[in-house]
């Protein structure tokens, strides 16, 4: 690995920006240098630069020159961002009195390499290049892990993303400090978990993190059996995707639903504590709630029951199918449900109203009341049971229901 690789990487980026405009004291640092040496292309691109001074004015000048966005991320620490449509350039003032001091405060050796763009010189005080070649994550020091304990989890996440190993002393140091993860802001932990959930090597490294005691605080119901299920979840995602069942965050939500408590209320609390969004929390809790019913469901359920079931699970259907398939519910049982869900014309899964509440009020001279909702539901069920099929039949059916209820 060499400077040539970095030059090649930088010249092949789809970025409308001339790097020669940078001050001679600017160094490309961190993940950008690591990725350049690995020829690892990420979108959107995020290049990090360190300068001894004038970071904000440098960023501003570049943003003005190209007419692109400019944001000060941290005024005190002088960190500013230039936002191009293709990605971002971050400029940070060097931490400490030299570049090496700055690099020494970072997490792993592979993330502590700097490259001077104008002199084309590589600064690698901790032999990060050798570790990149050996594909290992090695801590700079145990104290650095303590300074920001999120780094404990970052090790497993980056090992998963890069397909690296964690060097043995580093892994031991992480294990010894696992409880420090409890001090980290939940949003930061969540971001790392999400990366692991969506990375191909993620399950292997989640298992390692669990074994090393890193996950117990944030996912207190996690155990080896649940971890083992993750590979089946991965296969089930594949099966579902081949069937056309997709949903944003399917991987994250179905894996979370696997690792949390099997009790709906406890599961909801766990996901809420990690600061997932309201809809993500509800999705996981609902999946946990509905899975047991699906596991004992037979194909005897009535259309009416299916109607109410879809009403409740429509928004989490793909997640629930992933969990069901992963826990061994037979596809023979699930297929009729999946067919309904995938068919927009299917009235059981996607009911369409023959009449509206206003039709009932206007045409049958009714007063607005919760009874209207009940009538609309019964009309939809009568429609899926093929008892009625036109708006007039729906109105007649509503009259009939009103009649037998008086
Ligand atoms: N908790 C952290 C976060 C970041 N860094 C340092 O800051 C750099 C940039 O951080 P970030 O962009 O978060 O991570 P990357 O390593 O670039 O990797 P990724 O983009 O995949 O998160 C890292 O390479 C590392 O040198 C660190 O030491 N400790």
From TrEMBL:
Domain called Poly A polymerase head: residue spans: 26-138
Coiled-coil annotated residue ranges, if any: none
Family, as annotated: Belongs to the tRNA nucleotidyltransferase/poly(A) polymerase family.
Cited SUPFAM superfamilies: Nucleotidyltransferase, Poly A polymerase C-terminal region-like
Presence of the UniProt keyword Nucleotidyltransferase in the record: yes
Superkingdom in the source lineage: Bacteria
GO biological process: tRNA processing
Gene3D superfamilies, per database record: Beta Polymerase, domain 2, cca-adding enzyme, domain 2
GO molecular function: metal ion binding; nucleotide binding; nucleotidyltransferase activity; tRNA binding
Cofactor(s) required, per the database record: Mg(2+)
Keywords noted in UniProt: Magnesium, Metal-binding, Nucleotide-binding, Nucleotidyltransferase, RNA-binding, Transferase, tRNA processing, tRNA-binding
Domain tRNA nucleotidyltransferase/poly(A) polymerase RNA and SrmB- binding: 163-223
Lineage of producing organism: Bacteria, Bacillati, Cyanobacteriota, Cyanophyceae, Pleurocapsales
CCA-adding enzyme C-terminal domain location: 252-396
Protein name as catalogued: CCA tRNA nucleotidyltransferase
InterPro entries found in the cross-reference section: CCA-adding_enz_C (IPR032810), NT_sf (IPR043519), PolA_pol_head_dom (IPR002646), PolyA_RNA-bd (IPR032828), tRNA_CCA-adding_enzyme (IPR050124)
